[in-house]
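JOB MANIFEST
job_type = single_chain_structure
chain_count = 1
residues = 189
[input]
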Amino acid sequence: MGQGESAANEEVDLAVIQELCTTFMRECPSGALHLHEFKRIFGVQSTCEEESIYIETIFHSFDTNRDNKLDFMEYVAALHLVLRGKLEDRLKWSFKMYDRDGNGRLDRQEIRHIIKIIYKMKTKNTDINMTPNEMCDRIFELADQNNDGQISLAEFMEGAQKDEWLMEMLKLDFNAGGWVNRTMWVKSP
């Protein structure tokens, strides 16, 4: 890549950031994205407890300074992760979302918590033939390599990359299209 191409990429990135900032300030004139606004962006109704808990968990995972709001930098970092982030980074983020106690290991209770939420959300739109407990058991069967009843980050990453079903269960993708014009963030071929 020559200097001219590098400069062009930087200009595009600057234009994207400027557009993101404009959109962010229009949607969040206070300079912060609060949980209720985050839920509105994703169309989460207050009557759907599972979706609400899931979105709250996602929101708090992006709130790195724990002030209960996303500032512009947290917003951009979150967008970058979900729309352009490498699979490895998205898996690490998913692991962090599962790891409720922050000890760096996932136990059955932590896995079951997220699986139950996902299960309730997905059964509305798809035909799932496993219960949350069966899904949790299968995740441990595939990922807990040393059979200690906990899944480390390394086991999580390796298991997800070896098994397609496990990858789909663990990577916690969600529709971030409402955040911003996705075409600004999609990598060029």
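[summary]
Residues 1-12, 177-189 have pLDDT under 50 and may be disordered.
Residues 3-27 form the longest helix (25 residues).
exit_status = 0
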